């Protein structure tokens, strides 16, 4: 099998991020660990926990983080009930408790609250204090290893002043806890983070996935991208307002992934067409400036995208991304492990060979109601 650069791309999605941890655990078990991590919001946190630890400690550090920030409250024994209505009510209650009292090792309510904080300060711009998250990351992430190790890390955030997207990349600069927290600073819950005189918010405000950034970077060889999404574009027609709120959130946060994947496929098809056209040109045109420019623009490396998508449970509501109960975390984590293991065991994946050019997409995640998975594009 020819050489490929393995990249794990992690979308934002709050409490659903435990799914990404399960995906990584199943992937790491194969020995095919990523060369490059790219994440936004909770994806940036998971990515930092992986890149900032030695291989033997990565899964345990992920587990420690998720057990730290999730509540052990289980609804007095009723959680996990086969009755969707009861499970849904308990999840919403858990989400409400987290919003009211905060989460250990993650965030705490501000006192005095934002309206009573001095104008222009981070406290006046957010409901919660994220100092606990800073302490958790500094405890669980080795930032010297993160910057000097063999695994590249890229995290995305948004400049509050100009609205521009910014990526902090260990290939270009040294990262610290501020860069990870900036990527997950979702307003108005969390305060902006100051870095070198500029203030940053959660990268999900512009794009909830770093896939486009990854595909835009120069490549020396073919790429294998594991794209892990926490919101699915597909879903049933909502029947009432609660379902409408959840469906709107799924569509909003999944849209950029669909756009980026479509654009990547179109770009690679155009590059292939350009190379075929140049092969038909007479040799006399080889030094033509326009031909040289076209040749440079058409040097797209082959890319394979493995699309992993968390599929909602029937008892989940629009609170699923901020419902941090221990039970839900365990369910999400196990779903990620199962989906990654299923994908790697699929005949379509087992039979694949890395492409020499062009792009292919594998979406083999099991679907509800046993719907057939899509074959590679």
How confident is the prediction overall: mean pLDDT?
87
Q: How many helical elements?
A: 12
The total of beta strands comes to 11
What's the Cα radius of gyration?
Answer: 22 Å
Low-confidence stretches: 75-79, 370-377
Largest sheet: 9 strands, mixed
User: What class would the helix/strand composition place it in?
Assistant: alpha/beta
Helix residue percentage: 40-55%
Helix-strand string: EHEHHHEEHHEEHEEHEHHEHHE
Shape descriptor reads globular
Q: First CA to last CA: what distance? A: 20 Å
Oligomer: single chain
* Fraction of residues in β-strands: 5-15%
Give an overview in words.
The chain contains twelve helices and eleven strands. It is of the alpha/beta class and 377 residues long. The radius of gyration is 22 Å and the shape is globular. The strands form two sheets. Strands 1, 2, 5, 6, 7, 8, 9, 10 and 11 form a nine-stranded mixed sheet that branches. The longest helix has 40 residues. The C terminus is likely disordered. α1 runs antiparallel to α3 and α1 packs parallel to α11. The chain is 41% helix and 15% strand.
């Amino acid at each position: 099998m020819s050489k490929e650069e393995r990249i794990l791309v992690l979308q934002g999605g709050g409490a659903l991020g435990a799914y990404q941890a399960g995906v990584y655990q199943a992937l790491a078990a194969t020995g095919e660990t990523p060369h490059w991590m790219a994440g936004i919001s909770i994806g940036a946190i998971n990515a930092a926990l992986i890149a900032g630890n030695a291989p033997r400690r990565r899964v345990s550090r992920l587990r420690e983080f998720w057990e730290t920030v999730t509540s052990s409250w289980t609804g007095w024994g009723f959680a996990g009930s086969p009755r969707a209505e009861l499970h849904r009510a308990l999840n919403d209650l858990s989400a409400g408790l987290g919003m009211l009292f905060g989460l250990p090792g993650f965030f705490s309510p501000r006192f005095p609250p934002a309206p009573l904080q001095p104008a222009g300060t981070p406290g006046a711009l957010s409901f919660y204090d994220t100092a606990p998250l800073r302490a958790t990351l500094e405890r669980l992430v080795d930032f010297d290893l993160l910057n000097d190790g063999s695994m590249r890390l890229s995290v995305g955030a948004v400049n509050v002043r100009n609205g521009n997207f910014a990526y902090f990349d260990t290939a270009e600069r040294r990262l610290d806890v501020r860069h990870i927290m900036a990527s997950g600073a979702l307003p108005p819950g969390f305060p902006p983070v100051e870095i070198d005189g500029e203030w940053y918010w959660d990268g999900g405000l512009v794009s909830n996935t770093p896939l486009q950034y990854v595909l835009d970077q120069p490549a020396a060889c073919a790429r294998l991208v594991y794209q892990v999404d926490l919101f699915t574009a597909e879903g049933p027609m909502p029947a009432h307002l609660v379902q409408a709120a959840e469906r709107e959130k799924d569509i909003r946060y999944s849209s950029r992934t669909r756009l980026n994947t479509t654009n990547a496929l179109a770009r690679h098809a155009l590059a292939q067409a350009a190379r075929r056209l140049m092969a038909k040109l007479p040799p006399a045109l080889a030094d033509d400036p326009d031909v040289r420019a076209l040749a440079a623009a058409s040097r797209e490396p082959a890319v394979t995208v493995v699309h992993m998508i968390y599929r909602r449970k029937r008892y989940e509501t629009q609170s699923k991304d901020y419902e941090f109960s221990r039970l839900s975390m365990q369910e999400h984590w196990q779903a990620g492990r199962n989906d990654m293991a299923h994908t790697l065991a699929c005949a379509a994946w087992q039979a694949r060979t890395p492409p020499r050019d062009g792009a292919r997409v594998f979406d083999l995640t099991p679907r509800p109601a046993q719907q057939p998975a899509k074959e590679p594009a």
